[in-house]
């Protein structure tokens, strides 16, 4: 698509891009020319000498998938520590945390079996934390789109069958995250609700609006009050096929084979790096992403990008000569995907040490084109952050609004009550096409989008450190 006519007629500047300054926003509360120049310096460093992309290349290519408790997760811990030390942070250290150790085992198999016994292979994967099937598990199938629908079914319609949760994303919603939130409970609680009604297992439509044969994993839960049954995700095409065939033949069966299992917990670590504040060293601002990932791919967007951006945000400030007035702490959290043990441990230690956490920021929505920041704070603090929006407008990240900030920093709210939790927000339209699937690989990450995200995070840290809240 071509440029709009008004832009196409504009003559390009002959000044080298690295020497141009962003438009200076109109004077207002906590917005001034010096800040505009400082932020431009951050972006020049990121776009000309940014290190996020190459750090991500190593993390995803040399280490790869980093499921909690795995050898690769431990390798990632060492990578994070060495990368922070190389960046020249004032302090780098580890926080010990015990994490779950779930293993997938052999590749899962799923078949739709008709009346004549003929099987149709479909794409499936085990949901995280699920038990295995102990061989092949074959049973009838009952389809539902909600827990309420399941609760209304007669017992004989459910007992001894797979419960097939086939609620799709609501594609009318502009924000895919809202569609995810509206469907994900069937993944998290599907096995519990199926077992409560006598089902032998849960089959769950993948959490995506993409129509393909890539099943999306993700964590599920059990309730000790009901039996544990296996839970698997079907690709969206497999779910559509099963639904169509069930309408034609309600008596068909499904055969599932999974060898996943839960092993004893393992010792792991959060990785922490600090730049000590020059004026208020006891006021802490945290920025982080989660180091663990699911095991179907390389964990690039989820959440290798958040990790490298968090490290880079501190490095950019250091490289630009912008010494923070408050202490900045980059944290690579372990075990967000199937336990949030790292986030909980970080908050627990902060409470024990009686640390003063001014704010915390997280990047866990992929490294797509910047849009802005989601904020969990009082209306007054949200309004204060919105006063800085003109400084982010040249970098397409001026949408600062109330919204969910992040899973790993959420425990801090109860533990030490920071004034704001902030989530870096990028364009999420493609995120759930990749999320928790075999498609979440390094080649899906765009270098400039990644580096721009880290620079916007660094700019927010610069402002928070300078002005406080």
Automatic annotation (TrEMBL):
It comes from Hymenobacter saemangeumensis. Keywords: Carboxypeptidase, Endoplasmic reticulum, Glycoprotein, Golgi apparatus, Hydrolase, Lysosome, Metal-binding, Metalloprotease, Protease, Secreted, Signal, Zinc, Zymogen. Its main location: endoplasmic reticulum. The lineage of its organism: Bacteria, Pseudomonadati, Bacteroidota, Cytophagia, Cytophagales. This is Carboxypeptidase Q. Residues 270-459 form the Peptidase M28 domain. It is found in: Endoplasmic reticulum; Golgi apparatus; Lysosome; Secreted. Residues 1-29 are annotated as: Disordered. It holds the Pfam family Peptidase_M28. InterPro entries: CPQ (IPR039866), Peptidase_M28 (IPR007484). Homodimer. The monomeric form is inactive while the homodimer is active.
């Amino acid at each position: 698509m071509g440029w709009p006519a008004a832009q196409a007629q504009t003559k390009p500047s002959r000044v080298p891009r690295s020497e141009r300054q962003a438009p200076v926003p109109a004077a207002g509360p906590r917005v001034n020319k010096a800040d505009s120049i400082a932020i431009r310096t951050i972006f020049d460093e990121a776009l000309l000498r940014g290190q996020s992309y190459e750090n991500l290349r190593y993390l995803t290519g040399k280490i790869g998938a980093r499921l909690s408790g795995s050898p690769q997760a431990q390798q990632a811990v060492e990578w994070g520590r060495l990368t922070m030390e190389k960046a020249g942070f004032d302090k780098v250290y580890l926080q010990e945390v015990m994490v779950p150790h779930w293993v997938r085992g052999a590749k899962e198999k799923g078949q739709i079996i008709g009346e004549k016994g003929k099987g149709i292979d479909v794409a499936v994967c085990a949901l995280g934390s699920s038990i295995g099937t102990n061989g092949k598990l074959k049973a009838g199938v009952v389809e539902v789109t909600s827990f309420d629908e399941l609760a209304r079914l007669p017992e004989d319609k459910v007992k001894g069958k797979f419960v097939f949760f086939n609620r799709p994303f609501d594609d009318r919603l502009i924000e895919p995250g809202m569609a995810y939130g509206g469907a994900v409970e069937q993944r998290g609680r599907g096995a519990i609700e199926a077992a409560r009604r006598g089902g032998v297992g849960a089959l769950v439509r993948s959490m995506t609006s993409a129509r393909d044969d890539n099943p999306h994993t993700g964590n599920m839960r059990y309730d000790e009050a009901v039996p544990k049954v296996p839970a698997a995700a079907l690709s969206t095409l497999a779910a559509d096929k099963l639904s169509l065939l069930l309408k034609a033949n309600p008596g068909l069966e499904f055969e599932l084979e999974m060898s996943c299992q839960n092993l004893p917990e393992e010792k792991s670590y959060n990785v922490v790096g600090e730049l000590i504040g020059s004026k208020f060293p006891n006021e802490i601002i945290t920025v982080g992403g989660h180091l663990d990932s699911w095991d179907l791919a390389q964990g690039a967007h989820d959440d290798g990008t958040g990790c490298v951006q968090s490290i880079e945000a501190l490095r950019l400030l250091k490289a630009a000569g912008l010494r923070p007035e408050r202490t900045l702490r980059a944290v690579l959290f372990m075990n967000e995907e199937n336990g949030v043990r790292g986030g909980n441990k970080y908050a627990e230690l902060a409470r024990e040490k009686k640390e003063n956490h001014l704010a915390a920021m997280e990047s866990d929505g992929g490294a797509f084109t910047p849009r802005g920041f989601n904020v969990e704070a009082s209306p007054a603090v949200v309004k204060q952050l919105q006063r800085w929006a003109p400084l982010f407008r040249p970098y397409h990240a001026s949408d600062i609004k109330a919204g969910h900030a992040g899973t790993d920093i959420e425990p801090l709210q109860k533990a030490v009550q920071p004034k704001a939790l902030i989530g870096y927000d990028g364009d999420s339209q493609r995120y759930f096409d990749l999320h928790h699937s075999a498609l979440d690989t390094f080649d899906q990450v765009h270098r400039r989008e990644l580096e721009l995200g880290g620079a916007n995070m660094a700019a927010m840290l610069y402002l928070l450190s300078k002005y406080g809240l």
